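Here is an idea for our session: we take a single protein and study its fold together. Start from the sequence, derive the backbone structure tokens from it, and show both lines together. Once you have written the record down, we can walk along the chain together:
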Amino acid sequence: MNQYFATVARGLESLAAQELEQLGAKTIEPGFCGVSFTGDRDLLYRVNLWARLPFRILMKLHEFPCQDSEDLYRGVQSIDWSLYLTPDMTLAVKATGKNQQLNHTHFTALQVKNAIVDQQQDRFSDRSNVELQSPDVQVTVHIDRDLCTVSLDSSGESLHRRGYRPAVGAAPLKESLAAALIQLSGWQPEQMFYDPLCGSGTLPLEASLKALNVAPGLFRERFGFETWLDADLNLLDELIKAAEASQRESLPAPIWGSDRNPEVIEQAIVNATNCGVSNHVYFSTIELEDVAAPADSGVLFCNPPYGERLGRDSDLGAFYKRLGNVLKQRFKGWTAFVLSGNKELAQSIGLRSSQRFAVYNGALPCQLMKYELY
């Protein structure tokens, strides 16, 4: 059994722990911006393929006391790197965290790289080249006070980049956060889903993938573990085939998205095509004033602009008031979820929320507000 660590957005640790448990992870422990767990290689591949919330899945190699650069060099050299890396494979090192002596991540990463390639030179008179974009082996080191953790990054590019979304709007929601919001809401695929401010479609698309039981990792070109020395590509192939066979053929209930901007609706349709759900999810260009409930009941989701990145100069207070009026007057019998990073604007909706969930959109603290519309 190996020890793994799934990195996640701040505030989503317990939600990610639930997801990992459903995928078969053992000894699960939520931490800060991540969840540690144990499992075998099958689980590592399965989590990379199926998990909707994490950014990266790290495999822990070693943990050691580390106060300064000498401790760091010695600790990294104590690992037998020939188990993970040959001189003809490329390498990259990423460092996070710091302590009093090691307070510059670039220096920390350089010291780790030196320790690895010096060991290779001593043993093989040859060494790995550094390749920052797409290395064969991505090493990550994390300094937390006087402790250093060395891991291999099994994911490669961040898992939130599903690969279906080359077309994005001006302030796109990360796919992993969209999936987390949907999970937080308790939405079930048997309920209609509608986003009247859908932008390039991330929320309806993530809802569609969940409802159709589509593994989010199916759209990726590669995972980091595919170039590891112990990579089992037959196992990965089996897991991919099983994932494809488990997809549902149709949605139990409609999933819709609309936006006032025809250009972002075009982007949403491109993204839907890329993830194979263009025949399932419906996108249209509609002004907020013209939005009406397409069914007697359902779940409405939206991520309106909150002045951090979009629409700072426009009258957002009036926009939120308009949104509140549309919800009150036209969506009786529905449940609405609104994500906002601005408390004053949220009050302009003019509705009393029945529940609030604290989440982070990047570094920005936000609230997902639930409204029962009677």
